[in-house]
Amino acid sequence: MAVPARPVECVDFKAEDRLAVFGSDVEKEPIRLRVVNVGSLAGFTLGLTSGAFTPLTLDGGFPIRGELSNSVGIVYPGERLDLLLSADILSRKNPPHLFINLDPE
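Above: the chain sequence. Below: its structure as tokens.
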């Protein structure tokens, strides 16, 4: 929904900056991510190339039983999700990439 008055500007991060996003001790302790879809129209999916997510809670702290996976299903507008990120991201050969894809619907 970008218009000339509200352009969308995308920024590409350098590979050396990506490790700082996840921290340096991620192999020792998992990271808890809190994801909120603040949009009003589209859902999105999350994916990780090096590591895996474990879903913990959904919308308001309701615990869920989730299995380890490298992607998370569609997070619709207004939904909140807590994930535990267990990653092997300190590998120099395979740097981590977090993918956020809009739902095609």
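The longest strand covers residues 52-58.
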